[in-house]
Design brief:
Elements (H helix, E strand, L loop, with lengths): L6 H5 L1 H28 L15 H6 L6 H34 L4 H30 L7 H12 L1 H11 L3 H14 L3 H9 L1
């Protein structure tokens, strides 16, 4: 079984450093660009954002200046960065699936796919909901929908990702089964079990 913390062993430290540098090299200027843009727009509709964090579209709604060109420029830069990341992810998964299909034993392929497919589902959830959040037409926008979509791409994937990796552990699965089975018993059943 391949765990995420073994990347340095499997790929070599040079590849890991290159990927980390690409992530930081793309993410930091992108975040800096958004931050500079956010602080440069005048706010005339208060300073209360209808989200649980200061998401860019919500901050732009508070702006009293015509931010169409700024928003379009940031959208183009963001789409270029996202498209590059998306291509990298697709190429990575093609290589992963090609390598998995070369595994001679069916049990080995099943084990590898059981690790890859849930992770791919989380990545797909993140990409699809974030695309929807930022590219949906304003006519279908509502505070409740915006909040649900934001939770789906900002909270759910990071919360589910550790579960995907940790559910590979038999000990954790057994402990989870015990916790779930205890919740279905009444308190009297639990007390009887403790006195035995």
């Amino acid at each position: 079984m391949v765990l995420p913390l073994h990347y340095g062993t499997l790929m070599g430290s040079r590849s890991c450093v290159k990927m980390a540098a690409a992530a930081w090299g793309g993410g930091f200027p992108h975040a800096l660009l958004h931050t500079a843009n956010t602080f440069s727009i005048p706010l005339c509709q208060g300073n209360t954002v209808d989200q649980f964090f200061c998401e860019i579209p919500q901050v732009l709604k508070l702006s009293c200046s015509d931010s169409y060109l700024r928003e379009l420029g940031l959208l183009v830069v963001s789409l270029c960065l996202v498209f590059g990341c998306f291509i990298f992810i697709v190429v990575s998964y093609v290589q992963i699936f090609t390598a998995v299909l070369r595994i001679p034993s069916e049990q080995g392929r099943h084990k590898a796919f059981s690790m890859c497919l849930p992770h791919l589902a989380v990545v797909s959830l993140f990409v699809s909901t974030s695309f929807f959040a930022y590219l949906k037409p304003p006519s279908i926008s509502s505070p409740a929908l915006d909040l649900v979509v934001t939770v789906l791409y900002a909270v759910v994937p990071p919360a589910v990702n550790p579960l995907i990796y940790s559910m590979r552990s038999k000990d954790l699965k057994d402990a989870l089964r015990k916790v779930i089975s205890c919740t279905f018993f009444s308190s009297g059943d639990i007390a009887k079990a403790l006195h035995k």
